[in-house]
Amino acid sequence: MPETTWPKRRSFLERVRDPDARRALIIRLAVTVAAVVAVFILGWALAGSRFDARFRVVYSLDRRQNDLEVIKVINSASKYAYFAVYYFTQNDIADALIRAEKRGIAVRGIIDRDASTDVGKAVFDRLTAAGIPVEVQKHEDGIMHIKALVTDKAYASGSYNWTEAATDANDEVLEIGTDPGVHDQYLSIIKKVLQAND
Q: Which residues pair with 158 in a beta bridge?
C-alpha cells in the first residue's frame, strides 16, 4: 500500500510571516470581533427597550413627585381613564381627571367608603360635581385598598395613595407601564371592582 503523504501544515508563525495569510487572519479576526460586538449591542438594545419602555418603578422620596407621574399617565389618555384608589386627596390629580373628562375622555373611578366621608370627601365632591362617576365601595367585609389607574395608553399602580403625605413624606412605590398583558390585567380588575359595586 503506497504511503500517503499529507501536506505539511504551516505553523502559526509561518502563516503570520506570510503577508497574504496575515491579512486573511486579521480580516477573519476583525469580522469575528465585530460580529460578537454587534450581537452584544443588539441584545442589550432589545432587552433594554423591552424592559425600560414597558414599565418603570418610581420611588416616592427620590423626587417627591409621584403625583406628577400619575398626571402624566392621565394626560396621555385618549379614550378612557379608570381608577381605584383607597385614599385620594391630591387636588392636582383631581384637576387632571377633570381636564380629561372635559376633553372627552371617559373617566370613572372608585374610592373606599371611609375615605369618601373622611379626608377624601372634598376631592370626591369635586369629581362628582364635574360629572365624573366616582363609586364608593359598598361591601361590608373589607376595604377598597387598590391604588391603580388604567388608561388606554398605560397603567400606574403601587403602594402610592393619591395624598400629600404619600407624595411628600411616605416611602411609596409607583409602577408605570405599557405592557399590554399587565395593562389588561389591571383594566380587568378595576372593571370587576366597579361592576361588583353596582
A: 174
Where do we find the cell 508563525? Answer: 13
Does residue 1 lie within any of the structural domains?
Answer: no
Domain count for the chain, please give it: 2
Residue-wise pLDDT for 57-79, tens only, equals 999 999 999 999 999 999 999 99
Q: Are residues 40 and 78 in the same domain?
A: no
CB atoms within 10 A of CB 147: 23
Residue 179: give the domain boundaries: 56-197
pLDDT, tens digit, for every residue of 26-42?
787 777 877 777 777 76
- In one-letter notation, the amino acid at residue 114 is D
Residue-level length of the chain: 198
Q: What are phi and psi of 173, to 5 degrees?
A: -120, 150
Contact 98, 114 (CB under 8 A): no
Residue 7 lies in a domain: no
